[in-house]
């Protein structure tokens, strides 16, 4: 689900725990990691801060009960993007890794109980700086209350995943548009981040032409695979222990519990759990039916990547089921494994953080994101590697 019932091993030699350059400072310059024989490329790192869009059920967002009817030609949130934040208003932080200001813009969205650090480290490791070193222009979002976004989640935090879908994602997408204009974006997500992005597209289909391709690592919505790990991590810890802790603490202190790299609100936890358990893909806050909406759409080419050793948080069967619920016409499904020719049987976290990843599957990710039509046209049934 993000039900990352473990934190990214940032001190294990893959992604080091780190702070990032302050938003008020000058852009940082990294010596980008390079493939053997590749030309030297300088990656510039900068911080961008934007407020969430002022939209929600009370604002009558198009497509919501009580709001205007969805108009596919004009269904964006009504709030102007990239406006200055009001005093006390939340700020979303985006870390930009720019290897080429004219390169393909890539937006990265993290999952639950984590933040954008799943994609990058202080020392320049991770998928974000690696893609920048290949000439992409990468924007890594910290969603509300996560990572460097402020304020951090605490007892008084009352937002949930509906606000992330309706307000936060629109803000970060528009922030990329403000800097790159109409350049078609590539999207990358980890875990529950893929669920949020597909929900966003189902709700705001006007953004569909903007997305050239996407890659989702370990993204699933429902959990149906039964393993020892899923019983422990999903149904016992996430489903029973976390709600109990949240009821006492007023939020889920996942970082303090040692089960994730960031915290979540109690509302977010309840909404996430409902989607994990229920067949229906319906918004718990206002009843918007994402499942019905997405069935009417042709989604962009999306590569759903599972990992052989991920037996709970993104089990290959559950990842495939999420792909099938989202539309298979232009989709691809793969399992990272030694049997498939990969160097390792990766798990939910190491598929992005393992030192072997840049020389293993990252080049295929870059190829997919850069191809004019990575899915090679209409593919039915979905391509499986």
What sort of overall outline do the alpha carbons produce when their principal axes are compared? globular
List the strand order in the largest sheet. Answer: 1-2-3-5-4-6-7-10-11-12
Spell out the CATH superfamily. Answer: Alpha/Beta hydrolase fold, catalytic domain
How confident is the prediction overall: mean pLDDT? 84
Salient structural properties:
Rossmann fold; disordered N terminus; globular; 385 residues; two-stranded antiparallel ribbon; alpha/beta
Q: Could you characterize the architecture of this molecule?
A:
The protein is an alpha/beta fold. It has a single domain (28-222, 283-384), classed as Rossmann fold. It has helices spanning 127-133, 161-180, 192-203, 228-249, 254-257, 266-277, 290-295, 316-326, 350-353, 362-370; strands at residues 28-31, 42-50, 92-98, 105-109, 137-142, 185-190, 211-217, 251-252, 264-265, 302-307, 331-336, 383-384. It has a ten-stranded mixed β-sheet with strand order 1-2-3-5-4-6-7-10-11-12, with helices on both faces. Helix 2 (161-180) packs across helix 3. The protein is globular.
Task: Please describe the topology of this protein.
Layout: E1 28-31, E2 42-50, E3 92-98, E4 105-109, H1 127-133, E5 137-142, H2 161-180, E6 185-190, H3 192-203, E7 211-217, H4 228-249, E8 251-252, H5 254-257, E9 264-265, H6 266-277, H7 290-295, E10 302-307, H8 316-326, E11 331-336, H9 350-353, H10 362-370, E12 383-384
Parallel strand pairs: 4-5, 4-6, 6-7, 7-10, 10-11, 11-12
Antiparallel strand pairs: 1-2, 2-3, 3-5, 8-9
Helix pairs in contact: 2-3, 4-6
């Amino acid at each position: 689900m993000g039900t990352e019932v473990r934190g990214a091993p940032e001190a294990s030699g893959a992604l080091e725990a780190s702070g990032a350059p302050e938003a008020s400072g000058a852009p940082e310059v990294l010596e980008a990691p390079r493939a053997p024989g590749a030309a030297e490329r300088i990656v510039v790192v900068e911080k961008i801060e934007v407020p969430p869009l002022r939209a929600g059920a009370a604002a009558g967002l198009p497509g919501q009960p009580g709001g205007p009817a969805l108009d596919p030609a004009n269904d964006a949130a009504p709030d102007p993007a990239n406006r200055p934040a009001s005093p006390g208003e939340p700020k979303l932080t985006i870390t930009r890794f720019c290897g080429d200001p004219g390169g393909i813009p890539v937006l990265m969205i993290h999952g639950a109980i984590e933040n954008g650090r799943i994609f990058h480290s202080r020392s320049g490791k991770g998928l974000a700086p690696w893609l920048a070193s290949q000439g992409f222009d990468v924007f890594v979002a910290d969603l509300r209350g996560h990572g460097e976004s402020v304020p951090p989640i605490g007892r008084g935090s009352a937002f949930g995943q509906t606000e992330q879908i309706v307000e936060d994602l629109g803000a970060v997408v528009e922030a990329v548009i403000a800097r790159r204009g109409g350049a078609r974006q590539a999207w990358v997500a980890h875990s529950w981040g893929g669920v949020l992005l597909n929900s966003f597209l189902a709700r705001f289909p006007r953004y569909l032409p903007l997305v050239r391709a996407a890659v989702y690592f370990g993204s699933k919505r429902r959990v149906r695979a039964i393993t020892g790990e899923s019983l422990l991590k999903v149904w016992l810890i996430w489903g029973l222990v976390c709600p109990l802790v949240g009821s006492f603490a007023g939020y889920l202190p996942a970082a303090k519990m040692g089960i994730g790299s960031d915290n979540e609100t109690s509302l977010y936890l309840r909404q996430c759990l409902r989607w994990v358990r229920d067949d229906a893909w319906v918004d718990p806050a206002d009843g918007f039916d994402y499942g019905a909406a997405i069935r009417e759409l042709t989604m962009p080419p999306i590569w759903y990547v599972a990992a052989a050793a991920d037996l709970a948080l993104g089990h290959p069967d559950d990842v495939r089921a999420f792909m099938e619920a989202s539309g298979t016409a232009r989709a691809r499904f793969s399992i990272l494994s030694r049997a498939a020719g990969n160097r390792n049987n990766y798990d939910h976290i190491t598929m992005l953080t393992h030192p072997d990843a840049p020389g293993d599957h990252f080049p295929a990710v870059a190829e997919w994101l850069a191809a004019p039509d990575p899915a090679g046209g209409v593919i039915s049934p979905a391509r499986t590697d």
